[in-house]
Amino acid sequence: MLLSVALAATGCGGGSPAADDSASQRITAASAAAAATGQAPKGETASGLSVTRVVDGDTIHVDMDGRDVTVRLIGIDTPETVKPDSPVECFGPEASDFGKSALTGQTITLEFDASQGREDQYGRTLAYVWTELPDGGLSLFNLQAVEGGYAVERQYGPTPYAWKAEFRDAQKDAKSADAGLWGACP
Q1: In a domain, 147, yes or no
Q2: d(CA 22, CA 28)
Q3: pTM score, whole prediction
Q4: Residue 39 has what pLDDT?
Q5: What is the tally of helices (H) and strands (E) in the chain?
Q6: Which phi and psi angles does 163 have, rounded to 5°?
Q7: Which of 26, 72, 94, 111 is catalytic?
Q8: Closest alpha carbon to 182 in 141, 154, 152
Q9: Domain assignment of residue 185, yes or no
Q10: Is 72 a catalytic residue?
Q11: Has 94 been annotated as catalytic?
């Protein structure tokens, strides 16, 4: 396992195919822009990890040195689909499908954020998820989920997380464009 420290130098109806295509186009454009600006992890990373299961839009399982590790994505919250004794929330299935489509079977890099700690109250590892682009660059999945309207920006606890400004800007743009849940849910 490669462990390195990297610092940044720089419940409702399904969505329509047209809306899904539009979200995909926005995400692709955002990923290209991120690569062009050299967006990179700001904190300690663990690379070469395999996604073994996507639980929903904000929780995944990865293989870390032969151990199954549950990862809760920092800075985002997606509508519920699997919470016990809770109904499926509006746009939850779409958010879950987005995560499954983008991450299932992928090799990823986890970025840890010292300001958030390594684990949440349930023992899940807290991290940002970076996927590899065709050109070898990295793309921040958490940010893509907010950009496409599959997740909302959410800070847990009193300490702001490292990517908060970027996530808030992305949410503002997604909301203005009625992307994803912003156009589908009351």
Answers
A1: yes
A2: 10
A3: 0.81
A4: 86
A5: 5, 9
A6: -100, 15
A7: 72
A8: 152
A9: no
A10: yes
A11: no
pLDDT tens track for 28-46: 444 444 444 468 999 999 9
Question: How far apart, in whole angstroms, are the C-alpha atoms of residue 181 and residue 178?
Answer: 7
Segments forming the whole domain that contains residue 99: 2-180
Q: What angle do CA 75, 71, 176 make, to 5 degrees?
A: 30
Q: Which of the pair, 59 or 82, is modelled with greater confidence?
A: 59
Please give the helix or strand (H or E) that residue 105 lies within, else none.
none
Distance between CA atoms of residues 42 and 95, nearest Å: 26
> Residues 26, 94, 111, 124: which is the catalytic one?
124
C-beta of residue 76 within 8 angstroms of C-beta of residue 16: no
* 174 sits in which H/E element: helix 164-176
The β-bridge partners of 76 are 153
Mean pLDDT across 128-154: 95
User: Helices in 5-140 by DSSP H: which ranges?
Assistant: 17-36, 92-103
Question: Known catalytic residue: 168?
Answer: no
Q: What is the 3-state secondary structure (H, E, C) of 131-150?
A: EECCCCCEEEHHHHHHHCCC
Residue 186 is assigned to a structural domain of this protein = no
Q: Residue type for 117, please?
A: G
Question: How many domains is the chain partitioned into structurally?
Answer: 1
**Which residues, listed in sequence order, are joined to residue 47 by a DSSP beta bridge?**
2
